[in-house]
């Protein structure tokens, strides 16, 4: 079990909320005890209230024996008490003497008196100088201090970490000329504790932690004016994997009925993520699905590469109905529309002749105009939008749904008994 004992930061940029978010990235379920409460935002600390040991100990007493304990902001003398209570645990203490805005937290002298009770001490270079431990960390034999240098040499394009006489370096992430984010120390020390919990030796844990921190900070800098570590954004990666997996799951079915559904221009199935804003954030089959000697052929497996009309339709559709994130185009046959109506699907007929010239003449605008027209008429995203073609434009059916499986079920209803497909 991994136990976190740290302060509560209501902004969630640092403290126990950040600790738990960071550890969840590694698939670790952490237990937590709050050591203090702060009144703060991502820019400034206004006040702090440390909890009494009796309160903390009562909570610790009902938890299982921890394998690793990550300690954040705490009354320094409590580290000794935690060591006495859990003598076999590996303690990783992220020392925080003061906030970046200058609010005083802990006495350097009292911290120094309790350093020996931790197995690893994580601190920045400013704190290392105040505690006079920088020279110790520079020794090959030292295995206690992990010193980060994010607060020094802001003009450098690298971030360094010193441990056991060796420097580790990674690219410094800068957004709008700034490289400081609220909560980097908490995220770094929690990830480090997590990798050690997973069995990594400290030097390897540092390397892996720095690699992940780089990814987190790249994503965290995309939203202004919030300048804090947004670990949760990296958690979106699992949804990207899941989107690709869901598209993979319908490949067999696409192949089975493809000779009835793939139009001359090719078919695609696109699946947007909840936050997708452009075509490269929409999963799809690059190059489209084509018929070769009557057999559906895939240029490649599902990916976030390439552009697609169905991807643009996904992006437009979810603006009106966020849950509608998947779209596929299929061949048009009049009986398919009849099947759809008989199956109870909501159907909208789009007249390409009604398109304004500025829409018709600009690539990609027709699909957006088409969906807007459907919403204006029916006040919702229909299951089916179809058109009977235009000069140089193949007649087409578009199927809208929540997921690839949902869209696939609707496609099977559309092709139905007309093609004697086994349902």
Our measurement of the CA-to-CA distance between the termini, rounded to an integer number of angstroms, reads 49 Å
Please outline the major beta sheet: 9 strands, mixed
Query: Strand fraction band?
Result: 15-25%
What value does the average pLDDT take? Answer: 92
- Which structural class matches the secondary elements? alpha/beta
Helix content: 25-40%
Name the shape in a single word: elongated
Query: What would you call the quaternary organization?
Result: single chain
Number of helices: 15
**Uncertain residue segments:** none
Descriptive overview:
The protein is of the alpha/beta class and about 425 residues long. Helices cover about 35% and strands about 20% of the residues. It contains 15 helices and 17 strands. It has helices at about 15-25, 55-60, 75-85, 110-115, 125-130, 135, 185-195, 200-220, 235-250, 250-260, 310-320, 335-340, 355-360, 365-380, 405-415, and strands at about 1-10, 30-40, 45-50, 70, 90-95, 120-125, 145-150, 160-165, 165-170, 270, 280-285, 290, 295-300, 325-330, 345-350, 385, 395-400. Helix 4 links the parallel strand 5 and strand 6. It is elongated, with a radius of gyration of 28 Å. The chain starts with a strand and ends in an 8-residue tail after the last helix.
């Amino acid at each position: 079990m991994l136990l976190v004992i740290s302060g509560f930061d209501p902004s969630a940029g640092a403290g126990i909320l950040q600790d738990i978010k960071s550890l969840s990235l590694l698939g670790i379920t952490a237990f937590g005890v709050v050591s203090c409460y702060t009144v703060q935002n991502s820019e400034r600390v206004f006040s702090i209230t440390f909890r009494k040991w009796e309160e903390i100990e009562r909570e610790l007493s009902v938890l299982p024996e921890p394998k690793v304990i990550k300690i954040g902001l705490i009354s320094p003398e409590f580290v000794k008490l935690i060591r006495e209570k859990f003598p076999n645990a590996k303690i990783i203490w992220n020392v925080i003497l003061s906030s970046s805005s200058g609010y005083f937290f802990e006495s350097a002298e009292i911290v120094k008196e309790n350093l020996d009770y931790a197995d690893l001490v994580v601190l920045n270079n400013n704190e290392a100088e105040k505690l006079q431990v920088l020279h110790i960390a520079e020794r090959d034999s030292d295995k206690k201090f992990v010193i980060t240098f994010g607060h020094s040499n802001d003009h450098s394009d690298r971030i360094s970490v010193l441990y056991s006489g060796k420097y580790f370096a990674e690219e410094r992430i800068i957004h709008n000329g700034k490289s400081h984010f609220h909560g980097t120390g908490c995220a770094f020390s929690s990830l480090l504790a997590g990798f050690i919990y997973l069995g990594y030796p400290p030097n390897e844990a540092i390397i892996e932690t720095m690699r992940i921190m780089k990814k987190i900070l790249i994503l965290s800098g995309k939203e202004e004016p919030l300048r804090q570590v947004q670990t949760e954004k990296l958690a979106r990666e699992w949804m990207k994997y899941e989107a690709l997996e869901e598209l993979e799951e319908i490949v067999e079915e696409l192949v089975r009925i493809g000779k009835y559904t793939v139009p001359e221009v090719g078919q695609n199935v696109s699946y947007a993520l909840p936050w997708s804003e452009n075509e490269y954030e929409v999963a799809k089959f690059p190059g489209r699905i084509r018929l070769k000697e009557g057999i559906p052929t895939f240029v490649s497996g599902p990916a976030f590469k390439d552009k697609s009309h169905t991807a643009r339709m996904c992006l437009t559709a979810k603006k009106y109905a966020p849950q509608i994130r998947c779209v596929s185009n299929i061949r048009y046959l009049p009986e398919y529309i009849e099947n759809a109506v008989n199956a109870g699907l909501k159907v909208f007929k789009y007249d390409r002749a009604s398109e304004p010239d500025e829409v018709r003449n600009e690539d990609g605008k027709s699909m957006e105009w088409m969906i807007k027209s459907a919403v204006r008429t029916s006040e919702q995203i229909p299951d089916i939008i179809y058109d009977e073609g235009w000069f140089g434009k193949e007649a087409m059916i578009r199927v809208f749904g929540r997921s690839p499986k949902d869209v696939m079920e609707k496609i099977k209803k559309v092709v139905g008994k007309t093609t004697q497909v086994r349902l």
